[in-house]
Design brief:
The complex is a heterodimer of chains A (205) and B (154). In chain A, 33% of the residues lie in helices and 23% in strands. Chain A has helices at 2-17, 79-92, 113-117, 119-129, 146-166; strands at residues 29-35, 45-49, 52-56, 61-66, 75-76, 98-103, 134-138, 174-178, 199-204. In chain A, the strands form 3 sheets. A 4-stranded mixed beta sheet of chain A has the order 6-9-7-8. A 3-stranded antiparallel beta sheet of chain A has the order 1-4-5, with no helix packed on it. Chain A has a two-stranded antiparallel sheet with strand order 2-3. The longest helix of chain B has 15 residues, at 2-16. Classes of the chains: A alpha+beta (205), B mainly beta (154). At the A-B interface, helix 1, strand 1, strand 2, strand 4 and helix 2 of A face strand 1, strand 6, strand 7, strand 9 and strand 11 of B. Strand 2 of chain A pairs antiparallel with strand 11 (136-139) of chain B, so a sheet runs across the interface.
């Protein structure tokens, strides 16, 4: 009920804000279109108008809603219609953050050779997406006490940040944090050596 | 005497007015990533030019002119953008996975918006909602676009 009241208020507000419609033209409509994400996966959206729900679940599927009416029947937008409707907004949509995970040997703050080879990929992504924020978060497995692991994961994060800056990444955009043994990728008991938890996560956003 | 009185009034006024909005890492809900043309963040009634790296706060209104666009990443790793002649408000944003608290309410009043869902869409899709003047949109992990006030086909 409260929601219906809110909707009515919105409609009234809208009626006041909109320019006077030319009598001949049909009222404008809001159009919602569902699109696949960058992995090609399509979720779904639920569009509600005048208390009626309409679910979109296929890529390119769209629905139009006019003031005070239920959403119309879903239809599919062609690529050119989509570009005309939302091209600039879609081009301005930032890509989702990219994450890189680098691994370490037990007790060490030197990257494994394999991980070292992937540093360039991270540096390239940072360059390509600039301007960005980069978080560099160190982690350990659960071998050793809390304090030791906090220091070790901080050393790991600093070592990755230093290598990235040697690849040309500005240290000022990197935020270094240390999670020690508190945030394992693979949950284990205490004092368990687990290579997948000895890591630094670099997130580029 | 008079000057003291004026100073006292000014002091009182200053203490009554809300603290100036400032963006710290803690209360930021996201960050501007890209912009073009006329694109501003309206905060506390003031138009601030949008710049890449600028932190966004709950309550901010994002607005673009006829040649403008604006793209931002929110703290849950979702992306949101505006096309030309567009306006939206970030009415609510809560993202505390450790406490199980999630919320996203965006109100788009004009133009076009695109959205690519992030962790809220994954962890708590029911707590995300988008409102246009005539419809509400809920998400189930997705990318979508919405245009407000599209002329109807003749």
């Amino acid at each position: 009920m409260k929601r219906a009241y809110g909707l009515v208020m919105l409609l009234l507000l809208c009626a006041c804000a909109a320019p006077p419609p030319r009598p001949a033209a049909p009222p404008p409509r809001d159009v919602v279109v569902l699109l696949p994400d960058d992995q090609g996966k399509t979720g779904s959206v639920v569009v509600t108008g005048a208390g009626t729900e309409r679910v979109l679940s296929k890529p390119g599927q769209a629905v139009a809603v006019s003031k005070g009416s239920a959403p119309g029947d879903p239809f599919v937008l062609s690529d050119s219609e989509l570009a005309a409707m939302a091209g600039p907004a879609l081009r301005a949509l930032p890509p989702p953050p990219a994450q890189f995970i680098f691994y370490f040997n037990l007790g060490e703050s030197e990257l494994t050779d394999e991980s070292r080879a992937r540093l360039r990929d991270a540096a390239r992504t940072i360059r390509e997406r600039f301007p960005v924020d980069v978080s560099v978060v160190g982690h350990t497995d659960t071998v050793g006490d809390k304090r030791y692991n906090y220091q070790l994961s901080l050393k790991r994060a600093r070592s990755v940040a230093a290598l990235l800056s040697a690849e040309g990444v500005d240290p000022a955009i990197m935020e270094i944090t240390s999670h020690g043994k508190d945030n394992p990728l693979v949950p284990t008991g205490d004092q368990v050596p687990e290579p997948r938890n000895r890591r630094v996560e670099v997130t580029v956003r | 005497m008079r000057r003291t009185l004026i100073a006292a009034i000014l002091l009182l006024a200053a203490s009554l007015s809300p603290p100036p909005p400032c963006a710290s890492a803690d209360d930021a809900v996201g960050v501007v990533r890209s912009r073009s043309g006329e694109s501003v963040v309206v905060r506390g009634g003031k138009d601030l030019p949008a710049t890449p790296g600028m932190k966004l706060l709950q309550g901010d209104i994002l607005s673009t002119g006829p040649d403008g666009s604006l793209g931002a990443i929110l703290r849950d790793n979702s992306s949101i953008s505006l096309g030309p002649d567009s306006r939206l408000a970030i009415r609510d944003f809560r993202f505390s996975p450790a406490e199980g608290k999630f919320g996203l309410l965006v109100r788009i009043s004009r133009g076009t918006m695109a959205y690519l869902s992030g962790l809220i869409g994954k962890l708590s899709p029911d707590s995300a909602r988008f409102e246009t003047p005539v419809a509400t949109i809920g998400i189930r992990g997705t990318r979508f676009a919405v245009k407000v006030g599209e002329p109807a086909p003749q």
